[in-house]
Amino acid sequence: MPSPIGPIGIRSADGSITEIRFHAAETRSDTPPKCDVVWIAARQLEEYFAAERRSFDLPLAPAGTAFQQTVWRELTKIPYGGTISYGQLARTIGKPDAVRAVGAANGRNPFPIVIPCHRVIGSDGTLVGFGGGLDAKRFLLGLERGSLF
Asked: Is 117 a catalytic residue?
């Protein structure tokens, strides 16, 4: 699907979303996707980019280690428009020495935007590390903070 930060790909299997990725090849047509859950995900992302949606209600099927899934669950608790540092996130999950592992889990998030990894920043408040690129991260945070409109 097209988006303000570039094409986004959505994959599904067995009625669940299995992956959302940036920089996907543009394949959208005027007809809705054959899979209802992909259509629903695309619609919810469109609403998000229109500043009409703050959270997502999608069946997700994340594939990852127990540690990664713990990090991803914690990401969903970061408020819309809010941020947290990698160190704060590591402390929140009870692994204060696992800052790099938290960063790696964040980087392997299969559902960017839906599981808001863009809300994690450096300890000094700078924007660091994002699969969609720092311009996209800046855009998403600006969208959520209402500074784009």
From this structure: yes
Q: What is the pLDDT of residue 25?
A: 64
Task: Name the stretches of the chain with pLDDT < 50.
Answer: 29, 149
Which residue in 45, 117, 120, 140 is the catalytic one?
117
Euclidean distance between CA atoms 46 and 113, whole angstroms: 12
The sign of the CA dihedral 88, 141, 129, 46 is: positive
Rounded CA gap, 122 and 90, in Å? 12
Cβ within 8 Å of residue 44, ≥6 positions away: 53, 56, 57, 58, 114
Domain boundaries, the chain: 66-145
80/75 Cα distance (integer angstroms): 11
pLDDT for residue 148:
58
Q: Kindly provide the b/e burial profile for residues 21-46, where b requires at least 16 CB atoms within 10 angstroms of the residue's own CB.
A: ebebeeeeeeeebeeebbebbbebbe
CB-based contacts of 126: which residues, under 8 Å, 6+ apart?
A: none
Does CATH place domain 66-145 in 3.40.50.2300?
Answer: no
